[in-house]
Structure to design on (1134 residues):
């Protein structure tokens, strides 16, 4: 019998025995650094020709007689996931005596290595070229592929393995069959957790015991779970390699796009404290829905991996880190390589390299895929962009990673290039701005459901970046754009059809006006140094706090509760937070995640931090749908107010409102937040029509929202204004210009239009700005404008010797090609990654020079040469990834000695204070020869304001006498008791009394459980750092708090059921909540008078009781309620 027939015979006779095997540790013995992960074969990702799957399925080790206990190689696994009962296994699994092994499993006689196909080639010693493996050995991976195990399952298995919660040696073959039979990620990924981690807390979260509970949380699960989206994306890509772009083959919009699933992880340093040599450990994070980018839409979400570098890792030797990141990563059976770094994030792309789970197999590329170098050339071909410096070459990869959504596809013939406007001195007056026809803007508006047609959109298309502005000319009913040379960052081959991905207008943000704005500390300092007196700032600070607090303390005026509701909603950003939770991936492009003006980070124009901030926050903060209690403080206050509760009568509402107000007052004081009523922010755009003269600016709002001194609101302000942008480091970074009204520019709304006349680009005077998406701040507040004097323009020019402080890597692409022409591919990749990952080497320098500049301002003066130098060095380090400029080591060392000091008192945070107090280093002092510093004055005033407002709040929220019970909330329980007594007295029937006793007993038990949970440490220690285990409940991470409260409310709502008592379910819920309220009052009436218990477990029922008791109420479905809003009263200037 030949080998083929022998294999077929083995497959036919011994398949069932294979399914009873456990995978022995010896089968997957790989390097200590490997974390063992997995992959999926798809129609657009093929494996090599040498498939040993038949041999895997045929293999049948000789078995001895049954012997209890695990195989010899499998040591105790009880320590990893805890013991599990036999009943915990699924119905298709064998009875188990351990968490992962069938009992009575016959021990295999291990064949000699040369006869055993499960034994892998011995691992070679590690070196800088060896891969980092998060994949099982080839045998198990082939099994995953043959069984077509969904990718989501493989990723989840790998994630638990990377967290040391699971080992591949414990994974049963029959589990592969069970999970593979479910076919979709949507069904199989949650089932994996239920099957493999059945006793764990995660499985409790993923699977609910009741269909009712599942229904309640369906919306949250749909907004958070990535698996349905991944199924849709994989299907689209399997049918069409361009299927994720958002358009069909005819260019028609599909109302869906791919690339919305984020696969990411973190890199930790697990070395002992004080050890200089790092010990890196990569852990996978849960896949989640998030923002999309062009790369992920074009090639698929699972084609990319994002690695977050933790602070501990960044504090170690950068050479060790670079060596680690430049190594290939074998993840889920595929080879990934790092191709870009920004801040603390490193981005990996999947390549077509074959692997055996441990090493890369040369010369056997996977058909249909791209090599690492082919991917780089697809985006930014070196042969076509030889004139770029390597720094510029690297920066271009941010274009494909920008947080964006597809707007519309443009026919290649309708992508035109027009000239920029240049001044006589060759200053580019339109730098970063192109044009788009109005029909296209309207199409994008409707597709993205914007309220109004925008004047400008920040985009990526055809290798360009910047703004596309309404051209007010082309009325064609098709997509049409005009781009400028200043926008073009990548050259594509001419005369050929380019990839559809490059012809799509990818939208990052749209133009809109935000008013009012807040002054940043940098802006305050600039204004003060240019003539604005301290009294102006002190009055603005006082007025800002009054405008914040006074409306929140008005509980008695007509419509007081409606006003309070709208103020809490506005200050808490509630509506935007709700939309962000529902549409995490669209939060930025729809404006839900827009930061305050002074908090906009110019270096994050691509939105890389979205997952770390707003998007990540939106995955938490979902309310408890069982009890009805919202998660956030702001929404809880609103929920109680709109039910008819008032802070005068409800002590819990009063307590929450007290916390809400004090938190905001403290934040205002700490951040020196000064609201400027007469201010606004918007995109800066150039006047391409040439209407504006030098020093003129035009700004028209699409609404009448510009407040004037006489109280009138208008859409255009005429007169002197101040215009600035962030960062604001130099004396010239704020300019006083003349705001004018020009009818020829009225079509340009919600953008700040700057003149294109004169010798220099107007935006360039504002911290070197341009028109590719920079936002300006426009101030017409008379007190600020009148006193301000423009600084000498000499400060807008960098010092002549500024470049001598930098080392510049300005090698051009053609020189790099020549240098690497004759070296191996592996070495060429490493040489490229030296540039591609260059940002990792300079993660802290930008922050350092910002701090150095602040110290120089305080100790040397705002216009001192060193202060000016440090301001320019900050700006140049900010752009270092694009220019190749890095601060020389000697200069950095000297500046660190001179300017790395303990901050002045006004600047020092609580964290800084705790760190410096242990060193006895004093706060740096302002030299006597310099005038009083504005921030010292504001610090003094802010401290006084804080004291005054806290005294006021203490008096306002002071409880007078004992807390009174709310008769409306107590009524259902009291009436039920009265009815039970009547049944007992008149009908001699005590059944209702018995039922009420069951309810009361359950309430008392849950009350005690609630008290214990609120005082205990986190149920799951790994969700928070060890240092936080003993913190109060309020200080725990929001996810931990939500899990605790949800568990309590679920238990509270689970008993009694209608079959336990003679009451319908709705009546049980109402009486039970009322009982909880009364019992809580009775327990606390002689002390605080209340706890959170009845509200944490019965918020919805208690609020419904109160609303009905008011005499007028309306039941509303939750989806409607979440979108309800009220217009804010005019007199609050919002």
């Amino acid at each position: 019998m030949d080998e083929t027939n022998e294999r077929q015979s083995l497959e036919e006779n011994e398949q069932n025995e294979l399914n009873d095997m456990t995978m022995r540790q010896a089968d997957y013995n790989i390097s200590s650094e490997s974390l063992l992960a997995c992959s999926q074969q798809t129609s657009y990702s093929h494996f090599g020709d040498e498939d040993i799957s038949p041999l895997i399925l045929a293999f049948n080790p000789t078995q001895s007689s049954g012997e209890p206990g695990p195989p010899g190689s499998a040591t105790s696994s009880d320590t990893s996931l805890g013991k599990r009962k036999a009943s915990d296994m699924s119905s298709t699994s064998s009875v188990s005596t351990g968490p992962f092994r069938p009992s009575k499993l016959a021990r295999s006689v291990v064949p000699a290595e040369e006869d055993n196909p499960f034994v892998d080639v011995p691992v070679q010693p590690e070196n800088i070229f060896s891969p980092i493996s998060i994949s099982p050995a080839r045998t198990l991976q082939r099994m995953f592929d043959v069984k077509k195990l969904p990718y989501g399952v493989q990723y989840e298995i790998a994630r638990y393995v990377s967290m040391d919660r699971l080992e591949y040696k414990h994974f049963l073959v029959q589990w592969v069959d069970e999970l593979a039979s479910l076919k979709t990620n949507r069904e199989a990924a949650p089932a994996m957790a239920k099957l493999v981690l059945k006793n764990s807390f995660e499985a409790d979260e993923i699977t609910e015991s009741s269909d009712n509970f599942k229904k309640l949380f369906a919306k949250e699960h749909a907004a958070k779970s990535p698996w349905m989206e991944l199924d849709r994306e994989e299907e689209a890509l399997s049918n069409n390699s361009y299927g994720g772009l958002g358009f069909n083959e005819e260019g028609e919009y599909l109302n869906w796009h791919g690339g919305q699933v984020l696969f990411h992880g973190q890199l930790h340093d697990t070395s002992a404290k004080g050890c200089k040599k790092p010990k890196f450990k990569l852990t996978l994070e849960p896949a989640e829905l998030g923002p999309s980018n062009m790369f992920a839409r074009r090639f698929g979400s699972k084609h990319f991996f994002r690695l977050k570098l933790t602070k501990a890792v960044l504090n170690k030797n950068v050479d060790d880190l670079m060596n680690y990141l430049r190594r290939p990563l074998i993840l889920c059976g595929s080879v990934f390589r790092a191709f870009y770094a920004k801040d603390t994030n490193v981005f990996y792309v999947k390549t077509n390299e074959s692997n055996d789970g441990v090493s890369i197999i040369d010369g056997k590329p996977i058909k249909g895929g791209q090599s690492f170098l082919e991917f780089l050339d697809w985006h930014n071909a070196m042969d076509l962009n030889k004139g770029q410096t390597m720094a510029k070459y690297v920066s271009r990869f941010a274009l494909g990673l920008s947080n964006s959504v597809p707007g519309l596809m443009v026919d290649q013939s309708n992508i035109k290039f027009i000239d920029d406007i240049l001044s006589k001195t060759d200053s580019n007056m339109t730098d970063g701005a192109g044009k788009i026809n109005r029909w296209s803007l309207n199409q994008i508006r409707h597709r993205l459901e914007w309220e109004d047609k925008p004047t400008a959109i920040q985009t990526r298309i055809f290798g360009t970046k910047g703004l596309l502005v309404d051209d007010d000319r082309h009325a064609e009913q098709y997509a049409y754009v005009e781009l400028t040379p200043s926008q073009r960052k990548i050259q594509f081959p001419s005369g050929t059809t380019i990839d559809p991905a490059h012809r799509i207008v990818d939208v990052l943000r749209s133009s809109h006006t935000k008013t009012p704005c807040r002054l940043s500390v940098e802006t305050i300092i600039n204004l003060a140094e240019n003539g604005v007196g301290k009294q102006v700032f002190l009055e603005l600070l006082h007025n800002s706090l009054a405008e914040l607090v006074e409306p929140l303390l008005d509980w008695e005026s007509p419509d007081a509760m409606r006003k309070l509701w709208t103020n809490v909603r506005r200050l808490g950003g509630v509506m935007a937070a709700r939309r962000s939770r529902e549409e995490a991936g669209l939060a930025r492009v729809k404006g839900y995640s827009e930061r305050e003006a002074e908090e906009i980070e110019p270096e994050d124009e691509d939105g890389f931090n979205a997952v770390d901030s707003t998007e990540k926050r939106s995955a938490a903060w979902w309310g408890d749908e069982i009890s009805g209690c919202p998660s956030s403080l702001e929404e809880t206050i609103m929920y109680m107010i709109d039910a008819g509760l008032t802070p005068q009568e409800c002590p819990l509402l009063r307590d929450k409102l007290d916390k809400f107000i004090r938190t905001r007052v403290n934040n205002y004081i700490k951040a020196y937040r000064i609201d400027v009523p007469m201010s606004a922010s918007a995109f800066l755009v150039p006047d391409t029509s040439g209407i504006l003269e030098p020093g003129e600016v035009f700004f028209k709002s699409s609404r009448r929202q510009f407040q004037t001194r006489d109280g009138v609101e208008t859409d255009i302000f005429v007169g002197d204004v101040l215009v600035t942008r962030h960062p604001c480091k130099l004396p010239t970074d704020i300019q006083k210009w003349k705001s004018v009204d020009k009818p020829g520019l009225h079509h340009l709304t919600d953008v700040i239009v700057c003149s294109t006349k004169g010798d220099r680009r107007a935006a360039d005077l504002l911290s070197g700005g341009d028109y590719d998406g920079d936002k300006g701040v426009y101030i017409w507040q008379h007190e600020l404008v009148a006193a301000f004097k423009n600084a000498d323009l000499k400060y807008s020019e960098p010092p002549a010797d500024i470049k001598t402080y930098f080392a510049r890597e300005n090698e051009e692409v053609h020189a790099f090609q020549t240098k690497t022409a004759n070296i191996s591919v592996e070495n060429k990749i490493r040489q490229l990654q030296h540039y591609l990952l260059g940002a990792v080497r300079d993660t802290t320098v930008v922050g350092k020079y910002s701090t150095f500049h602040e110290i120089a301002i305080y100790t040397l003066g705002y216009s001192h040469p060193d202060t000016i130098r440090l301001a320019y060095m900050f700006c140049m380090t900010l752009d270092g990834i694009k220019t190749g400029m890095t601060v020389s080591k000697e200069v950095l060392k000297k500046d660190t000695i001179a300017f790395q000091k303990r901050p002045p008192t006004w600047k020092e945070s609580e964290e800084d204070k705790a760190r410096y107090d242990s060193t006895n280093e004093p706060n740096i002092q302002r030299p006597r020869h310099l005038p009083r510093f504005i921030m010292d004055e504001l610090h003094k005033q802010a401290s006084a304001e804080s004291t005054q407002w806290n005294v006021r709040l203490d008096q306002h929220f002071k409880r007078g006498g004992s807390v009174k019970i709310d008769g409306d909330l107590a009524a259902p329980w009291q009436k039920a008791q009265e009815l039970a007594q009547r049944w007992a007295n008149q009908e001699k029937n005590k059944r209702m009394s018995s039922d009420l006793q069951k309810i009361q007993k359950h309430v008392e038990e849950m009350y005690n459980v609630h008290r214990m949970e609120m005082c205990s440490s986190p149920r799951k220690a790994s969700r928070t750092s060890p240092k936080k285990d003993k913190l109060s409940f309020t200080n725990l991470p929001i996810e931990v708090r939500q899990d605790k409260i949800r568990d309590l409310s679920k238990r509270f709502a689970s008993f009694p059921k209608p079959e336990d008592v003679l009451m319908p379910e709705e009546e049980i819920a109402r009486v039970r909540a009322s009982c909880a309220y009364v019992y809580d009052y009775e327990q606390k009436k002689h002390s605080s008078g209340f706890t959170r218990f009845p509200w944490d477990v019965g918020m919805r029922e208690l609020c419904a009781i109160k609303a009905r008791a008011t005499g007028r109420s309306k039941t509303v479905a939750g989806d409607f309620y979440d979108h309800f809003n009220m217009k804010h009263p005019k007199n609050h200037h919002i």
In short: Residues 554 and 560 are 6 Å apart (CA to CA). The first helix runs from residue 3 to 18. The mean pLDDT is 83. The radius of gyration is 33 Å.
